[in-house]
Design goal:
It is built from two helices and eight strands. It is mostly beta strands and about 130 residues long. The site of zinc ion (ZN) has 8 residues, from loops.
């Protein structure tokens, strides 16, 4: 089943599960099996870490061109979020006006439909961010 495979492959993404290096405490998301700083030191020391999904906007841009494959409403805001645990990830900001996003805005992850392939195709879910209340 294509959908079951999709769900398995997206477990770490869906749960926002990262890895923490037991040697230098750096946190990675998406998860890595080896810490690029410690390399051999980190072998066997990468621990699973569930991320809070909370962070702040460190950079953003307002996108006016829609990606047809994602059926997105334009304009929308894409931001680089620095998570509480340290990793920086890119995500779409939802539930707000693009004008309300600033550098430093605190956000939290929410799970939303990312897009749909074709008329009755597979629906992709993933994390997006919204301003923290
Ligand atoms: Zn390390």
């Amino acid at each position: 089943m294509a959908i079951a495979r999709f769900w398995r492959e997206n477990q770490s993404r869906y749960n926002m599960q990262g890895r923490k290096c037991g040697s230098c405490e750096a946190v990675y998301f998406p998860p890595r099996d080896l810490c690029p700083k410690c390399r051999r030191e980190s072998i066997g020391k990468m621990e699973k870490l569930k991320l809070s999904g909370k962070g702040k906007v460190i950079s953003y841009s307002i996108v006016h061109d829609g990606l047809p494959e994602f059926h997105m409403q334009v304009p929308y805001t894409m931001a680089i979020i620095e998570l509480e645990e340290g990793p920086r990830i890119t995500g779409q900001i939802v539930d707000t006006n693009p004008d309300d996003i600033k550098i430093g805005t605190e956000v939290e992850a929410v799970f939303r439909k990312l897009g749909q392939e074709g008329e009755c195709g597979i629906i992709h879910y993933g994390y997006k961010f919204r301003p923290k209340e």
